[in-house]
């Protein structure tokens, strides 16, 4: 693709951002679809965040992705939030609609689609166990509630953060219900349990979807599989790991070895990107090409630090 005076701009802001796979993923798809667009990575310091967001409007970017540590920090600088971004309290995609900046959370969509496409299950009426309480956990727990899970149980090494996430979600769902004219009794049971094998043993036997949202296992650091009480788990429970370097973590490997279905964070990454692409261009990107591009990149890098 040759860039010219009509080339449209997109990108990702974060810090650090030089490891991001998004430029490779989006530019491959722009080129395959013959779209005159380019996607770049911008390392943005906290104190420059407002200027960076003004720049999107000022320079007429079609939109940007937002990554760590700016997913919550960008919110005050936006004109509008989608319902899921408001409930989750984090934005990973901004769309510039004729100068109006709208914040979305497509991580949550990526999680739900990955479950649907890779193992054919929906979140409705499921019991979901969320390991972790950071940014990814907000999206996973929030989407589980939005899609009608029966229960969301949150555990985190720093227990107060699990409690804060639960309180935050209770609060935003309550406001969401009140704004739509219904009462605030969420249909999903939300609870927290302490960190560790002993506490998990008492609850995991009842869980349908078990999600690692922590960075344990990223680039081979840490092994969550050691802490899971494997003999207390439903036979048909599904395991999901948000980590995608390596594509199959030891947590997923052990789940598969024991006969469980498992979904890699690679698919969450792909589907969140697919949704952002669609929001910016109005077109559906080729999922297989996105997967092929990322897998090829991982094999080149030997699965490390991608
Ligand atoms: N697949 C995707 O599309 C996608 C999307 C978003 C994020 N991610 C991945 O998700 C992971 C988490 O990202 P995030 O944005 O949620 O980060 P974050 O906000 O910094 O949260 C990190 C979480 O991991 C926990 N944690 C980290 N090291 C731990 C350890 N050694 N033992 C126990 N808990 C530990 C933290 O617990 P404490 O609160 O106790 O510190 C916290 O719950 C990263 O690997 C990121 O790449 C993937």
Set down the secondary structure blueprint.
Elements: E1 8-14, H1 22-32, E2 37-43, H2 49-58, E3 63-66, E4 80-81, H3 83-88, E5 93-97, E6 100-104, H4 106-119, E7 127-131, H5 135-146, E8 151-155, H6 159-179, E9 189-193, H7 197-204, E10 209-212, E11 238-241, H8 250-257, E12 261-264, H9 265-281, H10 287-301
Parallel strand pairs: 1-2, 1-3, 4-6, 7-8, 7-10, 8-9, 10-11, 11-12
Antiparallel strand pairs: 3-5, 5-6
The structure holds NADP nicotinamide-adenine-dinucleotide phosphate.
Residues 68, 107, 110, 132-137, 156-158, 161, 213-216, 218, 222, 242-244, 265, 268-269, 272 line the site of NADP nicotinamide-adenine-dinucleotide phosphate.
Oligomer: single chain
Total beta strands: 12
**What ions, cofactors and ligands are bound?**
NADP nicotinamide-adenine-dinucleotide phosphate
Q: Determine the CATH topology of the largest domain.
A: Rossmann fold
Protein model, in words:
By secondary structure, the chain is of the alpha/beta class. The chain has 2 domains: 8-104 and 267-301, Leucine Dehydrogenase, chain A, domain 1 (Rossmann fold, 3-Layer(aba) Sandwich), CATH 3.40.50; 108-264, Rossmann fold (3-Layer(aba) Sandwich), CATH 3.40.50.720. Helix content is 40%, strand content 19%. The chain has helices spanning 22-32, 49-58, 83-88, 106-119, 135-146, 159-179, 197-204, 250-257, 265-281, 287-301; strands at residues 8-14, 37-43, 63-66, 80-81, 93-97, 100-104, 127-131, 151-155, 189-193, 209-212, 238-241, 261-264. The chain has a 6-stranded mixed β-sheet, sandwiched between helices. The mean pLDDT is 94. Bound molecules: NADP nicotinamide-adenine-dinucleotide phosphate. NADP nicotinamide-adenine-dinucleotide phosphate (NAP) binds at residues 68, 107, 110, 132-137, 156-158, 161, 213-216, 218, 222, 242-244, 265, 268-269, 272. NADP nicotinamide-adenine-dinucleotide phosphate is lined by residues 68, 107, 110, 132-137, 156-158, 161, 213-216, 218, 222, 242-244, 265, 268-269, 272.
């Amino acid at each position: 693709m040759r860039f010219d005076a009509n080339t449209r701009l997109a990108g990702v802001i974060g810090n650090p951002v030089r490891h991001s796979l998004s430029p490779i993923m989006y530019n491959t798809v722009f080129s395959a679809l013959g779209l005159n667009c380019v996607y770049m990575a911008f390392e943005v310091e906290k104190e420059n965040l407002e200027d960076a967001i003004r720049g999107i409007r000022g320079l007429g970017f079609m939109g940007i992705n937002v990554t760590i540590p700016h997913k919550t920090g960008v919110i005050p600088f936006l004109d509008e939030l989608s319902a899921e971004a408001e409930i989750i309290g984090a934005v990973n995609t901004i769309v510039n609609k004729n100068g109006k900046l709208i914040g979305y959370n497509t991580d949550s969509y990526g999680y739900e689609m990955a479950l649907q496409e890779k193992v054919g299950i929906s979140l409705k009426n499921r019991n979901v166990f969320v390991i972790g309480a950071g940014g990814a956990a907000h999206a996973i727990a929030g989407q589980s509630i939005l899609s009608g899970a029966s229960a969301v149980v949150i555990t985190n090494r720093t227990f107060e953060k699990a409690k804060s996430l639960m309180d935050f979600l209770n609060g935003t769902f309550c406001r969401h219900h009140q704004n739509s004219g219904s009462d605030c009794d969420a249909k999903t049971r939300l609870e927290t349990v302490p960190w560790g094998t002993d506490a998990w043993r008492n609850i995991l036997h009842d869980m349908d979807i078990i999600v690692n949202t922590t960075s344990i296992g990223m680039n081979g650091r840490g092994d969550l599989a050691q802490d899971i009480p494997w003999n207390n788990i439903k036979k048909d429970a599904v395991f999901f790991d948000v980590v995608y370097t390596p594509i199959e973590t030891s947590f997923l490997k052990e789940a598969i070895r024991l006969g469980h279905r498992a979904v890699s964070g690679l698919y969450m990454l792909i589907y969140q990107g697919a949704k952002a692409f669609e929001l910016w261009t109005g077109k559906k990107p080729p999922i297989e090409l996105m997967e092929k591009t990322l897998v090829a990149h991982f094999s080149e890098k030997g699965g490390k630090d991608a």
